[in-house]
Amino acid sequence: MDYFLTDEQKELQQLARKVAMEKVKPVAAYYDKTGEFPWDLVKLFADLDFFRIWVDEKYGGMGKGVMELVLVTEELSRACGGIALAVAASAL
């Protein structure tokens, strides 16, 4: 479904989808089983600036909105809802 996303939003969505399928999905069951915190994935998300999406640029963020955060969280949730919350909770 097309929600009239901008090209930039679509690129971010595609990046998050790729990360979800290639990096999160293969290890999601492991983290569910062990209960370990996915530090390696959190590091990856930080490197991709997923934690700075909604933060104002004057504070070192990307200056995007909640919509961009939702797009990333939604795509990561396709692979693992729990791991996706590591990103979503950063906005609380």
What are the main properties of this structure?
Butyryl-Coa Dehydrogenase, subunit A, domain 1, mainly alpha, 92 residues, single chain
Quick rundown:
With 92 residues, the protein is an all-alpha fold. It contains four helices and no strands.
Verbal overview:
This protein is mostly helical. The protein has a single domain, classed as Acyl-CoA dehydrogenase/oxidase, N-terminal domain (Butyryl-Coa Dehydrogenase, subunit A, domain 1, Orthogonal Bundle), CATH 1.10.540.10. 64% of the residues lie in helices and 0% in strands. Helix 3 runs antiparallel to helix 4. The model has no long low-confidence stretch (mean pLDDT 93).
**Helical segment count:** 4
Overall shape: it is globular
Radius of gyration: 13 Å
Integer tally of domains: 1
**CATH architecture descriptor text:** Orthogonal Bundle
Q: Any low-confidence stretches, pLDDT <50, length ≥5? A: none
Report strand %. Answer: under 5%
Number of strands: 0
Can you say what the CATH homologous superfamily is?
A: Acyl-CoA dehydrogenase/oxidase, N-terminal domain
Biggest sheet: strands, sense, closure?
A: none
Q: Classify the secondary structure makeup into a structural class.
A: mainly alpha
How far the N terminus sits from the C terminus, by CA atoms, comes to 28 Å
Classify the helix fraction into a percent range.
Answer: 55-70%
| Assembly type | single chain
CATH level-1 class: Mainly Alpha
